[in-house]
Structure formats: structure tokens, C-alpha cells
Amino acid sequence: MKRTLLTLAMLMVAVPAYAEDDGRWIRQARRSCDFWGHCTVRYVYVRRPEVRYYAPRRDDDDRGVRCRDVMRTVGNQHLSVSGAKAEADKAWIQMVRFHLGEAHMTLENARDVTYTCSRSSVGETLGQTFSRCEVSARPCRAQKEESER
Hints:
It is elongated, with a radius of gyration of 31 Å. The protein is an alpha+beta fold. The model is unreliable at 13-19 (pLDDT under 50). The longest helix has 20 residues, at 81-100. It is built from two helices and seven strands. It folds into two domains: 2-47, no CATH class; 59-138, no CATH class.
């Protein structure tokens, strides 16, 4: 009687309580073979590997403004350098809005804004040359404003 109770208790301990499918455990088949090629299969439950999500680096300054890593893009060509800078600004805003959302897309809140402009046309068209600009900046979230009541 004691032996059957002991055997029953061992079976209850051997069968894990997490055997039902709760999404955190996976049933794996472990196969082992001996020298002569006789193989046995035993099933074990293992914990599902944790899924880790990538979180971009953020740094806060003393005012609580959150900035992301530097993002750079090139705008369309334009007849003047100022027009090429405006095209690069539009391209940067579109890219930041797509990747980070509307909270970071304002170029006035960005840090370390630099422009690199150069001539993009090979020859002259009616005496004019085209320019293209690249803008690189660290997108930052706007600082929260205190509302007066």
C-alpha cells in the first residue's frame, strides 16, 4: 500500500503541472539511439524561449526631452540650394514619421541638424545647375508644455 502511494506520488511529481498548452511550454521529442541503431523517443516539456523586442536607445536631457539616434536622408534635387534644403527637410520628416511616429517628426525639436549640399547635375541646363542636400539630425520628442488654468 505504501509502495503504491509512493509510486503514485512519484508519478504526480514526474508529470508537470504545466503540461496543458498555456503558450509558455513546448512539447519536444528527444530521440536517443544506441550503438546498434535502436532508437527511442521520449517527450519532454521545455519553456518557450522569451521573445525580446528591440528598443532603440533613448537619452533624456535635463528638461526630459527624449531623443533618438541620428537619422539621415537625401532629398530631391532643386534649382537652388535653399530649395534643395527644403526638399531634404520634407524627406527627413517623412522618414521619421514612418519610423518613429508623429511625436518626433518636427525638425525644430531635432538636435545636431547638419546639411550636406552638393551639385547634382552633370552639365548645365539653360545655364542652371541642380543641387541636392542630405540632412542628418537626432529626432527628439517635443517638450511638454504646462497648461495654465
